[in-house]
Amino acid sequence: MTPEELSAALRELGEPAFRGKQVFTWLHRGVRSFDEMSDIPKPLRAKLAGEYQVAGLTAERKQVSRTDGTVKYLWRLQDGNCIETVLMRYHHGNTVCISSQVGCRMGCAFCASTLGGRVRNLMPGEMVEQVLFTRADSGAEVSNIVLMGIGEPMDNLDNVLKFLELVNHPMGMNIGMRHISLSTCGLIPGIRRLAELELQLTLSVSLHAPDGETRSRIMPVNRAWDVDALFAACHDYFARTGRRISFEYAMIDGVNDADWQADLIVKKLRGMPGHVNLIPLNDVAESPLKPSRRVRQFQQRLERQGIAATVRRSLGGDIDASCGQLRRREMEREREERKLC
Ligand code: SAH
Fold first, then answer.
1. Could you tell me the distance, in angstroms and rounded to a whole number, from the CA of residue 174 to the centre of ligand 1?
2. With left for phi above 0 and alpha for psi between -120 and 50, is residue 151 left, alpha or beta?
3. What do you get for the CA distance between the two ends of the chain, in Å?
4. Disulfide: which of 68, 109, 274, 298 matches 218 by Cβ 3.0-4.6 Å?
5. Which positions are annotated as active-site residues?
6. What is d(CA 26, CA 34) in angstroms, rounded to the nearest whole number?
């Protein structure tokens, strides 16, 4: 809830409206119970605890990378489902990568998050708590948020927009839109809706192939919203917001790493200052796709033709830190346990 919504809820309990702001401030400090809200009168704390609940997430598992300090949390939700959050430490500040759905229904061939389909959308509060509790547990100040965990943010856009409002709120974490990235596999209506809002966040688009044939093969979403319509939406997005789009490109051996594909990216990005972020493919056990050995060559080919291209540094390799891998393990463990029972 926003402070205004909290005030309205408190007024219904016969309380003055200013309590809404107080409760909001406490919540966004990351408390886990009403009892920690020390300047709220005790009887009100008890009343609130009778009507509402603070924390929806509990830490089920935490893994800390020995090599780079990346922390991965597996959270248990109220309904028993699990999601993941990753804390990455960069020179320019700490970044929290959050999940937006339990599972995903987009079906990308290389992604572990989508293997079991989508179970449900996350509520705004469940997304906010991932950031709050990661900060509280790790003691790390959070300067950036990326919506690049499990789920497709634009398949849950109303809740994601509410989440953005909450983390951006000056009375809460006050994280500036320019410090937030939202990644989509290319749901065009969502991109168009976001463009109209003219938020200053960074839009990341999971491109992974510039030609329809390859893209449809590895990303079923391309059959509904094809890559040329996607590029058109990206051009419009830039024209409307003036924000440079970041294109994610997981390099897959023999699938999307050919020279002609680099050249096609160059051609289709013409007229828009895009940035291509090449991702060394993370090996997912269930997938036959293998990492490309041409990442540097591909990067150089893009750069020579004037396209900014970087290779994403891989963090947390020793802790299954990429999307969906830890949740998947947990689901398997639970299944094994049930068999044993
Ligand atoms: N659903 C959104 C958010 C996920 S973001 C989206 O598709 O953009 C996570 C990024 O990691 C996406 O670009 C996704 O395509 C990519 N990704 C998924 N599995 C991967 C893997 N095995 N190796 C490298 N990148 C992967």
1. 27
2. left
3. 41
4. 109
5. 84, 323
6. 9
- Tell the residue number behind the tokens 């926003």, with chain if given: 2
Residue 191 zone, left/alpha/beta (φ > 0; ψ -120 to 50; rest)? alpha
Q: Is 108 in the pocket of ligand 1 (CB under 6 A)?
A: yes
Instruction: List the residue whose alpha carbon is closest to atom 19 of ligand 1.
Output: 111
H/E stretch holding 96 reads: strand 93-97
Who contacts 341 (Cβ-Cβ below 8 Å, separation ≥6)?
none
The string of pLDDT tens digits covering residues 134-145 is 999 999 999 999
- 100 φ, ψ (degrees, to nearest 5): -115, -15
Which pTM was predicted?
0.94
> What H or E segment, with its residue span, contains residue 118?
strand 118-121
Mean per-residue pLDDT for 140-166?
97
Taking only the tens place, the pLDDT of each residue in 66-94 is 988 899 999 999 999 999 999 999 888 99
Question: Taking all residues of the chain, what is their mean pLDDT, rounded to a whole number?
Answer: 94
Strand 71-77 and strand 308-311: the pairing is: unpaired
What is the DSSP code (8-state) at residue 309?
Answer: E
Choose the residue to mutate in 86, 97, 102, 111 for probing ligand 1, maximizing ligand atoms within 8 Å of C-beta.
Answer: 111
Please list, in sequence order, all residues whose beta carbon lies within 8 angstroms of the beta carbon of residue 30, skipping any fewer than 6 positions away.
Answer: 132, 133, 135, 136
Integer-rounded Cα Rg, in Å, for the chain is: 21
